[in-house]
């Protein structure tokens, strides 16, 4: 990509300059929204228009072995523009927001270094916020403490574990659903390791946000249309081989508390494969779980993320053209 007399690329991304000089932060796009809202398609369109790099901000899509159930972009789509942080970790690992933030920051820096535009896309609000604003300064939790918390969760079960947390940390227990085993375990391990409630740590100023000129697009489809898209997409996943993915994961005998095991639809399809429920029932249950998750995501983004643009209309060529115009204005005026 060529340079102009101002020392920046045609995207307005500054080239490296001496540290003594004041430099305007480079630009980055965020495309956020609930599952099945069309985020990946819009991010790809933006990346192709502005020579960008698509960077995954979905906590499930970082894991390998589940490209269908986690709705990762197809190989054909990934061939149209660079895609980063998709399927990079084995399902046997757990990726924290801090780890993802560091990985995403490295990909953004690499994109800027080559004059490309980072396009961060996903539905995991905590990941996106960690990148833009930083994280609460919770100390690193020792592995032994984490293992002990997970073992206790497995021994007690979610309901009893939630009750045990409520006795010691009623504030965090009140914030968490008894079924949210991952966050319950996190609250307990932080309490065990630090002697302080995670709520206290979260009240501290956040650290580690990335300096960038953020242009944030939130997709907020009308609820009925979003739910219909969730239902249709899960049926398509089953036709595309989601059952085979679920069967393969079952052979790995992974800890059910691992994040990858929370992939939408995995539990329901696994129950069908085990002969516990019929396929139609499994699909219906998975669709309901997906709709519930989409609702929670929509609520989070509505109240927790300040967007440059919020789009409720169905994505179309004319709407994408309008989005492109606003992004172009963002490049020119900031």
UniProtKB/TrEMBL annotation:
Residues annotated as binding ATP: 33-40
EC number in record: 2.5.1.75
NCBIfam families, per database record: miaA
Named cofactor requirement(s): Mg(2+)
Site keyed Interaction with substrate tRNA: positions: 124, 146
EC class name: transferase
PANTHER family, A to Z: TRNA DIMETHYLALLYLTRANSFERASE
A Pfam entry, by short name: IPPT
Protein known as: tRNA dimethylallyltransferase
Record-listed substrate binding positions: 35-40
Database matches in InterPro entries: Dimethylallyltransferase, IPT, P-loop_NTPase
Reaction equation(s) it catalyzes: adenosine(37) in tRNA + dimethylallyl diphosphate = N(6)-dimethylallyladenosine(37) in tRNA + diphosphate
Family per similarity comment: Belongs to the IPP transferase family.
GO molecular function terms listed in the Swiss-Prot or TrEMBL record: ATP binding; tRNA dimethylallyltransferase activity
Alphabetic keyword roster: ATP-binding, Magnesium, Nucleotide-binding, Transferase, tRNA processing
General function of this protein: Catalyzes the transfer of a dimethylallyl group onto the adenine at position 37 in tRNAs that read codons beginning with uridine, leading to the formation of N6-(dimethylallyl)adenosine (i(6)A).
Quaternary data: Monomer.
Region called Interaction with substrate tRNA, residue ranges: 58-61, 182-186
